[in-house]
Protein: Flagellar motor protein MotB
Amino acid sequence: MSLAAISPGGPFSDLLFDDGPFDDAGRSSESDSWLMSYLDMLMLLITFFVLMLALYGGQLVDRDLETPAVTALPLHVPAVRPPAPLPAATVGDFYRPPRQLAPAPLASDVGFYSPGPVAVPEERVAEAPMVFSVPLFDLPDATPAAALPQIDGVEVTAIPHGFNLRIQDHLLFDSSAVGLSDSGRQLVERLIPTLQAFNGTISVEGHTDSVPISTPRFPSNWELSAARASAVVRVLRLAGIDGDRLRAIGYASTHPLASNHTPTGRASNRRVELVLQEANSPTP
Structure:
C-alpha cells in the first residue's frame, strides 16, 4: 500500500483518521441498546445460578453421603395350603365338630437352648360348699316354728336366747282392775307347764297406753303397769315356779307397739309380756 492511499486525502483516509465505528455521534441511539439488555440478562442468570448452588448444593451433597445403600432381601412367602374339604354328611348322621388342635409351641431364638414341653400335673381342688359363719352380732337362735309353744290367746315369738309370750290385757284383767280375772287366771295356769319346763329367767312386763291415770291407788301408769305385772308373778309363784327366776317390771306407755292416737292402737299397747331368757344368755 502506498503512502498516497493512507494519506489524508486517500481512499482510506475516512477509515483511518475519522472516528468511524468509534464515533458515538455518528451511530443511532438504538444501535447498541440490545447489548446492555443482553449483559443484564446474563448477569441475572449468573446470579440466579449462584444463589441456587449456595442454597441447595450443600444439602444435595450431604444427602448423597448419608443415604445408605439398601440391599433388597429375597422375600419367601410360604405357600398357603387350602383346607381339606369336609366329608359329606349322610342322611341320619349328626354334625360332629372337628377336634380342637393343640396350640402351636412358642417360637424361640435360633441357636439358644429350647426346652421341650414340661408336663404340669393338674391339681384337683376338692369342691366344698361355700359356707361362711361370721358372728357379726347376736342372732336369734334358729328355733323351728314347731318348737314354739302353741297357746290360745297368747302370741308367741322367738327372741335371742328365748321366747316372748304376749297377752292382751283384756284376756287377763277386767276394765280398770289389777287383779287377774277368772279367765285370766285360767290362761296363766295353762302357761305354767311351759314355764316350768323352761330353764331360765322369766320377766313379766306390764305395758299401758298413753291415756293418763290418776287415782289414790295408781297415781300414774307406772304404778298400774307394775301392779299388773306383780299380779301375774304372784300366780306363777303360787304355782311353784322358783322366785329367783321371776321378775316383775312396769314400763307404763314407754314401749308402745302401735300409735296411741287410735282406739285400736291403744288396745294393742295395753298388754302383759312374759320374756323367757335362757340361763346363760346375756342380760338384755
